[in-house]
Amino acid sequence: MHEFALAQDIVETISMKVTEDLEKVSNINIDVGAFSGVVVDSLDFGLKIILAEKNVPGVKINIVEVPTIARCECGEEYEIKEIFESCPKCHSFDRKLISGMDIVINSVELVEE
Amino acid sequence: MQNIKKKIELSARERNDLIAAENRDFFKGRGIFALNIIGSPGCGKTSILEYTANHFNGNFGVIVGDVKTALDSDRLIQSGHKNAYAIETGGGCHLTANMIKEKVHEMDVESIDYLFIENVGNLVCPSTFDLGENLKIAVLSIPEGDEKVRKYPALFLRAAVVIINKIDLLDVMDYDIKRVKADCLAHNSKVKIFETSAKTGKGFDEWFDYLRDQRRRR
User: Fold this and answer.
1) For a tag on chain A, would you pick the N or C end, based on fewer CB atoms within 10 A?
2) What is the pLDDT of residues B87-137, one digit of tens each?
3) Nearest residue in chain A measured CA to CA from B96
4) What residues contact B149, with CB distance under 8 A and at least 6 apart?
5) Which range marks the domain in which residue B186 is found?
6) Is position B4 within any domain?
């Protein structure tokens, strides 16, 4: 249910940090971490509704799912698809998740006159 | 006409996170230790709050988020805790940093050492919104069953503390507590686990000591 709130924040962030004139935006490229807690289809749906509401329904939304990477205390880095996958090298669960937890607005493509 | 690609690499949570950082600075400047309590509806979040508020007495502030009503904050006020405030989200499934920022300015913060923020009862959305807290705390309870950790990984990957509440019911329910603890540790090997009963008081002394110690460390 929180995807719509995130979609609103994404559009606001683009208005504030990239361009207030959303008509210039052709593509929005978003990276969604596998363990970010976000449903990609719902985020896509939310963004489409908000962009249509802002009268820029033609903006293309590209959402890419990025893997979650853990760094084990033994130094090994590995991708986690399921929580109960321990380190392939030493089988420990002592790890830090170093990517794939967040939703990142990677880039915005603009058409300039 | 030319197409320009602007790399921005900003978190979609940027707007929330900036306000969360402001909240964190605000709390730090006033020596307030803030906790974000997340758990299912009915797991005992408010009972844990009440029990903890009774112990820490005056220097304790509470913000309670619910979709509707101020029942929980009313309950705390009736039991003598004046510094209890409600946020009615009106349908929203989680609290945001901005809601906390606005509410904190209504509170008497000068007398507070601890701020308990009880999030909307939900194991999904609240887990990924930073409110500016010092600790994110997940509350489980025995009657919910022993599979919650596996079913809601987003919360248990992020929670620094897990409280297993209603522990007095362990003997009468089929609840594999060993499995629950192992699941918590698989999600976060550094997690601190407490077993409490807000009915009998079991486990609370350890919890109070932990809170005092954590506040001292900040």
Assistant:
1) C
2) 998 888 899 999 999 999 989 888 899 999 999 999 988 998 999 999 999
3) A5
4) B140, B156, B162, B180, B183, B184, B187
5) 14-217
6) no
Fold exhibited by the domain A3-110: hypothetical protein PF0899 fold (3.30.2320)
In a domain, B193, yes or no: yes
Ranges of H-type helices in A38-95: 40-53
A36 interfaces chain B, CB cutoff of 8 Å: yes
Asked if residue B6 belongs to a domain, the reply is: no
The answer for B34, left when phi > 0, alpha when psi is -120 to 50, beta otherwise, is beta
CA dist., res. B64 & res. B57, Å (int) = 17
Minimal CA–CA distance to A44: which of A25, A64, A72?
A64
Phi, psi of A17 (to 5 degrees): -105, -20
CATH number for B119? 3.40.50.300
Is A75 near chain B, with CB under 8 Å? Answer: no
Output the pLDDT for position A82: 85
Cβ neighbours of A104 (radius 10 Å): 21
B87 to chain A, closest Cα gap in Å:
17
Does the complex come out with an ipTM higher than 0.95?
no
